Amino acid sequence: MRERDLRPWLTEPEAARTEGLINLFESLSPEQATEQIAAYARRSDVRYDEESVVLYAGTNVMDPKARALLGSSLSSRPSLGHPGGKYETGLEDAEAIEMGCLTFARQVFGAPFVEYRVASGSLANLYAFMALAKPGDTMLALPTSAAGHATHRESGAAGLYGLRIVDIPWDAERMEVDTAGLAEVARRERPRIILLGASLVLFPYPVREARAIADEVGATLMYDAAHVSALITTQGRAAFQSPLDEGAQVVTFSTYKSLGGPSGGMLLTSDAAIAERIERIAYPGLTANFDDGRVAALGVSLAGFCRYGEEYVAAMLANGKALAEALAEYGLPVVAAERGYTTTHHVALDARPFGGGDHAARRLARCAIHSSGIGLPGEEIPGDYNGLRFGVQEVTRWGMGPDQMHIIAGLVASRLQDRRTPHAIWRDVRALRRDFQRLRFVLT
Ligand SMILES: *Cc1c(COP(=O)(O)O)cnc(C)c1O
Hints:
Elements: H1 3-6, H2 12-26, H3 30-51, E1 53-54, H4 64-69, H5 92-109, E2 113-118, H6 121-132, E3 138-141, H7 157-161, E4 164-167, E5 170-171, E6 176-177, H8 179-189, E7 193-196, H9 207-217, E8 220-224, H10 243-246, E9 250-254, E10 265-269, H11 272-286, H12 292-329, E11 346-350, H13 357-365, E12 369-370, E13 372-374, E14 387-391, H14 393-397, H15 402-416, H16 422-434
Parallel strand pairs: 1-12, 3-4, 3-7, 7-8, 8-9
Antiparallel strand pairs: 2-10, 5-6, 9-10, 11-14, 13-14
The site of pyridoxal-5'-phosphate (PLP) has 15 residues, from helix 6.
């Protein structure tokens, strides 16, 4: 049976690629398949960790000590409930690991209530929606043209849970929330949740203003820090913002993006009533067992962040600024020029002159530079994103600084402006990476 006949919702390229790989595995013995899967994993590690410049904004490299813990047998041992009240016996070590993670999570995020047993940032958002609203309630969230995330929208967790979504007005000139517009929409729509946050973050959000509006209309203010989790830490917030201190009542995020931990999600709150609802959703609501190998890796990542977070965030923000300025010097259309491009590790280009963000990202990938398309306001380009998004969190952890941001900007520009062959650019990317093979900002 052809994949396209079995799953007609796949696109033509998806069906072709899927079918090719399934055919390959169908031709292999279990032993051969085992070897192949390990070989693919090794090749992927080499590709990303040694040979590419990864500017994809939603990823990072883990501390090798944290990564090693993902191979522990903890990952397949169930661990239900809180330490002291576990359902299974023999979990004394797992209990200690869980509390190590919680202790450092509290220190890093300065929050009394932390839910860390969450498999992903998307699920963290679902937990928050369930704790704060009922199906049929209204939530205000950013539109996809302002890089609003799928989980905030009809097609994602919010819509699947039954929330009605109304757009938060976005000031495309200044790349920020239109606060007066938000107040107007909130008074008209009477939402249960106002959700700030998106997958492209160039400037802080107006949290205090949004909280005043939320209080006026009886809504709860939620902040999705998926990409900026490192920037809202006690170590990083002076350079960005502190959503809990400024009035956000629930903060959610992914732990593998700027934070640099394992894949997973987290929720923070200072409100005991909300915390109790979230905990009951986490357990026994939507997780029975959770992956304690991941929790161990997260604990180590957070401990490292306690030590090096401040330096790491400062280096990352300096690189964000340097990359944006260098891209602009090369004549590329960097977004938000009048505001100095960015105050985070994210940088965005208007990708419409290059045939769209996804198209541009695929061209860069041929030279081993990885990135992605992203929604930006403005007249849309059919079948693609208006924006091309970069993040400097990973190159920062590989020890690169503003000089290297300049080199990278030159390589990006020569590819997008078609000034050199892809092979010549690829050779330069490989040569640049060769000098940066040691991770910084990790405990030794
Ligand atoms: C990445 C992202 C998420 C989802 O995180 P996962 O951990 O990948 O599920 C949620 N919200 C925003 C704004 C994101 O960019």
